[in-house]
Amino acid sequence: MQRTRYKHIAIGSKVEGDTVIKIKKPTNEEAYSRTWTGAVRFQNPKWYDIYLSDGRVVKDRDLHQIITPEGEISLGVVQ
């Protein structure tokens, strides 16, 4: 299993110049695993929905750290 880098995303953080205003669990059943009986287990989602001030909603798994040539670190969406 490959180790993933930890990303700290909080309300008020900047993502591509916009501010994070809300972080919620997704309502989509694909974000959750199923139990052995086949029912959806609405705990520990595979991603969280990040709501930005410009109205966009991105998944936290799509955010990556971007380091500028000046050495500044920011978060950006990589498709």
Task: Give descriptors for this structure.
mainly beta, elongated, 79 residues
Describe this structure in words.
This protein is 0% helix and 33% strand. With 79 residues, the chain is an all-beta fold. It has one domain (14-77). The chain has a 4-stranded antiparallel sheet with strand order 1-2-3-4, with no helix packed on it. A two-stranded antiparallel sheet has the order 5-6. A hairpin with a 4-residue loop joins strand 3 (49-52) and strand 4. It is elongated and about 50 Å long. The model has no long low-confidence stretch (mean pLDDT 84).
Kindly name the structural category. Answer: mainly beta
Percent in strands: 25-35%
- Shape descriptor: elongated
**How many whole angstroms does the radius of gyration measure?**
15 Å
Number of domains: 1
Number of helices: 0
Our measurement of the CA-to-CA distance between the termini, rounded to an integer number of angstroms, reads 23 Å
- Helicity level, as a percent range? under 10%
Order of helices and strands: EEEEEE
Could you give the count of β-strands? 6
Mean pLDDT: 84
Largest sheet: 4 strands, antiparallel
Low-confidence stretches: none
- Enumerate the strands of the largest sheet in spatial order, edge to edge or round the barrel: 1-2-3-4
